[in-house]
Amino acid sequence: ALMRFARDVDDTKPEEVRLRDEIHSSGGLHSLLTLFLRSSNPSVKLISALAVAYVLPASVVASGQNIKPQVGLKLVECLRFLTTIQSTQRIREDEITSHDCCRAASLGLTAFWIHTLEPMLRSLLPEERLLVNGNQLGSQYSLNANDDKDAIPPAALARRASSAGGSMVSRQRFRTFTSQRREASGIQELLEMSITLVIRFASFFESESSSTGKNQSPLLSDMTADAVLLVEQVCALEVARPIAVREGILRVLVEWIRGSPALAGNKMKQAAVLSLRHLTSIKDKYMAGWIHSQMVSSGALPAIVALTNDIHLAYPARLAVAQILSSLCIAPHTRAAVVEANCIHFLIDLLYEHAESDELATFAGQALFQLAAGAIQRAGTMGASDKELLGFSSRERHDRILNDIVARGAIASFVAIALEKRGKLRMIAIETLGVLSEDVNPKRGTRLQLCEDGTALALGETMIDCLRRGHEEDGPLVGSKCGDEDLEQLFQALCTLSNILDPTYEGTLSRSSTMADVGDAPRPKSLLIKSCMQTIESGGLK
Predict the structure, then answer these.
(1) What is the pTM of this model?
(2) How far apart are the C-alpha atoms of 492 and 211, rounded to whole Å?
């Protein structure tokens, strides 16, 4: 009767809502939970678990963070049990299907995560987060609640406990430490069980959606919405990300991106991309490297590349893709995977949108800067014997990066950004132009392209702008009052100018290049003179 009432209550009727709340206030949830845990009758166990799942949303809204981790573990175990029901169960006049059980469990877990577990995790103090993460302090001591009796206190507490006098304070601190460890152990276990169940829901609904064809039933659509919300919530919480990756969430997200007409279309794809963005933006460098490697090995990049070809891809998803690629371009091994997946074309195309979105241009520019710097640095530090030892594919990859950047118009976009933007975005543009100016491959003609696209003009205006902010009105242009950011931009601009205005390189290129013999193409010498004039006219010489 309680199960039916909690299931069929109408939220628009205050009297029914009041009666449902009485189930919680009178201890009904704990009674149902105890019945589920202690009963050996399969029918009673199933009915009590369903009743818990239906009562749980209203209970967690009322209780919030007052639910203890030990109670939370029992609740999650109850919800997990419902997902194991595979066949339709008939209990008296009630016919209970596996979808009914999963729907009830997903509703209960969604409410529990949003109103209890996530606020509980976000409210943890830094030292408590260390215990939950198992890092530093938590890695020195077992997080198993059964080991509390044999726990060894920190050295400082042990010394205080053994010293004469102050023993009462020492014992109190030791009890506090032990209590914190016990609490952290329960929270960690609760978090892991909840994430495992979330991924189970996501995998179940994805497979069920694919098998039912294009038209989802309203019930399945609601369950899919719950799964999407839960996955996004898990990936947005930093302490949960490593556990989610370990439990296989990347495979689920890749399937969502690849998608099928049954998977709620772009909604699922956008949710997957936003979740991947959260996973790649983890602050811990060691953990970030591991997650990035897992993304590459799980096949996420080809799926993301396929998604970039969608002309209907919404702005938040495109921004998320740019941020993902920017994060993956930091480490050499994941940077190579970005190149192999042909993501560079998408990044260059995003630069053209710098007038509409600084964020898109920033992430795309950071990624291209990392790619160009990796290719230039690797090529610049290798001698002839090293190049012979280096595989052909690596040399080919480095050339492909620079060829795409030069041939697809990225230099012109960086020049426009340097002329029009300020702050971090202009710094990225200046640094990238400086890296590209180190490329002396005569066949590619990178420095000639820099001259032709007006790089000298942008660099000259950058220098004069930086100096203007560092001197008083009508005073001389001196750099003594420039900030660190302005000085860095001045340094990068001067280094880049010294490269592209190098007459020795121009002479070598004019002899080896055939550009001067092709129709009306500008001669290298005329481009060099043009760049010198741009430097003067922009105020760079001054």
Answers:
(1) 0.75
(2) 57
